[in-house]
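Run log // design_07
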């Protein structure tokens, strides 16, 4: 399994960003996929789950602002972020639920 996250950037508060996670070694349409994030001073925080059937769930901190989706043909998972806040600043990772394997992450910095 390999996960390659991309799309992170410096964005102003209230802005939008779309993160991508190109996956190999498994089919994203068959697995429960999750996005998590981490800062140097916090533990890994879960931010989104996508089930094979398409159902999604989010924690209160991002619900209504983040949307997880996938492109089965590209075997890629996305995280659309809108109305971002400074507290969304973190390195974002994608992985298969229950797995201890993840990519290098992609840095999102929300600052004016």
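design_07 sequence
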């Amino acid at each position: 399994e390999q996960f390659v996250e991309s799309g992170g950037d410096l964005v102003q508060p209230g802005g939008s960003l779309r993160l991508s996670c190109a996956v190999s070694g498994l089919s994203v349409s068959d697995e429960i996929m999750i996005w998590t994030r981490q800062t140097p001073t916090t533990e890994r925080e879960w931010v989104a789950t996508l089930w094979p059937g398409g159902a999604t769930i989010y924690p209160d901190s991002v619900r209504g602002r983040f949307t997880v989706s996938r492109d089965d043909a590209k075997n890629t998972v996305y995280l659309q972020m809108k109305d971002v806040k400074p507290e969304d600043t973190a390195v974002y990772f994608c992985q298969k639920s229950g797995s201890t394997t993840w990519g290098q992450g992609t840095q999102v910095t929300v600052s004016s």
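The radius of gyration is 13 Å.
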